[in-house]
Amino acid sequence: MSSTDLPETLAAAVAPAPRVGAVRVADGEELRSVSLPGLTLNIRARPNQRSGLEPSLFVHGLGGSSQNWSALMPLLDDRLDCEAVDLPGFGDSAPPDDGDYSVTGHARAVIRLLDSAGRGPVHLFGNSLGGAVATRVAAVRPDLVRTLILVSPALPELRAQRTAWPTALLAVPGVASLFTRMTKDWTAEDRTRGVMALCYGDPGKVSPEAFRAAVEEMERRLRLPYFWDAMARSARGVVDAYTLGGQHGLWRQAERVLAPTLLVYGGRDQLVGFRMARRAAAAFRGSRLLTLPDAGHVAMMEYPEVVAQAFRDLVDDCGNRS
To answer: What is residue 111's predicted lDDT score, i.e. its pLDDT?
Structure first.
């Protein structure tokens, strides 16, 4: 099955993205850039001296980056060849030449990356927007996915939580520029505290060092001229994906996923409703469900040890069945 199963959009040339500051690299990590037709993607990897490890790819959520997986990857690098991608327009990846920030566009980027490297099938991890992207990849290219691990995946909800409304409003044309003007006096510290209050079950558990690193990354992102455009267009892409029906609907595609699946939901998630856990468990055939009552939207950052063990249990169980 080829990646052309996802519809293409017309490409439009844009100016090269500027380099703004240095991206944080944790101990044991390396960054590299991968150039593909219409895309330049930043990859965060943990080089390992062991051979024969199964490949994995980690996909972040809206407004995030590959750094969102830096707490989890070290806990799995004895078992996996770990790589995390910055989606187009996020982290240190340039905007896509065609300006396509839809869920399909991001999924196409992941597929092209995996096809170009010949790394499939991978253990595919996704959080939030990345969970929707990973679901679409697993549905249309099952040959690329060994297992699927979804942390608070952004799958359609009929009644979104009130706390998620501001994020959804970014999809409305003009709102991002209005929000930029309204918050022009906010400091990077203010913005970072706001994001952590929204995404963490208990922001108070974030260490001072981790907070400083997050502030530095926020400062870097705000200097990118395309930051708000990437946020707004990707938010619009999520909303558009929620309205799709038929075979392109995300819930229908969830039912098509063949890979063993682990679902992780946080009881304090303000962006993806905890009530969606049961529906997801029913949609993904034979899936495992891990619920963390005190976790927020980014359980892999709040409880990386628990998520890592759940993944190991999934893989061990799959091995015992084979």
So the answer is: 98
Say what the pTM is. 0.88
Residues β-bridged to residue 122: 145
Query: Identity (one letter) of the amino acid at 297?
Result: H
Q: Which residues contact 282 (CB under 8 A, 6 or more apart)?
A: none
On the question of pLDDT at 49 being above 90, the answer is no
Q: Do 118 and 86 touch, CB atoms closer than 8 A?
A: no
Q: What pLDDT was estimated at residue 93? A: 97
Tokens, residue 159: 């009644």
Q: Closest by alpha carbon to 221, among 60, 31, 93?
A: 93
Strand-by-strand arrangement of the 54-59 sheet:
30-36, 39-45, 80-85, 54-59, 122-127, 145-151, 261-266, 288-292
Domain layout of the chain by residue ranges: 3-321
Q: Please give the CATH superfamily to which domain 3-321 belongs.
A: Alpha/Beta hydrolase fold, catalytic domain (3.40.50.1820)
Residue 63 Ramachandran class (φ > 0 left, ψ -120 to 50 alpha, else beta):
left
Do 116 and 108 contact (CB within 8 A), yes or no?
A: no
Burial of 100 per CB tally in 10 Å (0-12, 13-18, 19+): buried
For residue 294, give both structure tokens: 């005190």
Question: What percentage of residues in the chain have a pLDDT greater than 90?
Answer: 70
Is the pLDDT at 266 greater than 90? The verdict is yes
